[in-house]
Every structure is written in structure tokens, then in C-alpha cells.
Amino acid sequence: MHSIVYADPPWSYDNKNTGGSMTSGSANKYPTMSLLEICSLAHYIRPIVCDDSVLFLWVPEPIEEYAWTVMDVWGYKRKGRITWIKRYPGNRRGMGFWFSTETEGLHFGIRGEVKPFRSMIPNYLVLPVLGHSEKPAEFRGLIERASAKTMPGVNKLELFGRKSIEGWTVLGNAVDGLDIRESLTRTQSGIVLPEPIQIKEDSLDTKLDRWFK
Fold this sequence. Notes:
By secondary structure, the protein is an alpha/beta fold.
């Protein structure tokens, strides 16, 4: 069972082109997931996390409100965010429809009884941009340092990770070549999980009511 969850879902946007060219959007880089599909991962995540646990969830600025929805469905109460202030090489700037987007939020929340970290680490990091959607390793280190006093030695889970990390259970297509739902199912035996859900064009509220009755 895991007490810290760190997730960077492959969010989908209404438009494939989210940057400066017709090949810059997420959907042209890797398979993406809708809000409904990400919410439905609650079925697979809840059985392998502790009743008292912390979630760190990356959500891009244009769809930041999704952080509240996903955390609620996954069973977490949002507590705040850590901001990545991005530094671009040369004269490059971040893309955006309204302003140049040069920050991204790592939202965090808790389920159950989790003691506050009481950490003096600032809630932002200024770091260079990496590959498309790639997050700096410093954020994983920040989580480890901030939680060390109140949650020492706990099991840590990374979802949609890109490579194996010592001290973490890392699940993601780039690591194991599997769909995230299959990866989550394989992390613990003896758990009965639901059949895949056929997504239809009705409202989010209706779907969530049907899934979590």
C-alpha cells in the first residue's frame, strides 16, 4: 500500500495543436486521456493506496479546474499547489491563447488523517523546461524532503512515470509498455476491479453517479 501518490496524467485538450505548430500538441506526442477517463482511474487507485495518504497531481494551467474534480473523485481533499516557474532557453517563451503560459501547478491533497508537513520549503521552483510534458526530477525530491519528517519510510507511487526511480513504484507506458489501468491492476493481486467502461456522450455528473454508486 502506498502513502504518497505522484501523478502526471496525459491530459487531453479540445484542440490537438496547443502550441506553435500543428505537431506541438499533446495528442500528437502520446496517447491522451479525457477527464472522464482520468476520473475513472479511482477504481484502480483506491485499492492500492493507504486510507491516510497524500496525492500530488500535475494539471496544466488551461484546465486547472480539473484538479478539484479529479482529487474529489479519487478521494482526496485539495490543500494547495506547488508552482513550477519555467525558464526557457534563449528568447523562447511559453505558448498560450491569452498570455504566455510559463508556469504549471502541482496540486496536492490528502485523504484520511495526514499530519501537515510543517515544511519551510517554498511552494515554487524555478527550473528549465525539459522535453514535451516532462517534469523536473527536483519536484520528486521536494516531495521526499517535505514529507520526510511526518511520513518517513512510506511507500511512494508514481503514475505515468517515464523511468524507474529508486524508492518509488513507477507505473507508466514508458516504463512497462502497459496501459495505466493494467499496470495498476498488476501492482496488487486479489483485487476485483471493474470492467472497462464504455464512455458515452452524456454529462460528467451522470457518469460519475453511475460509476460510484
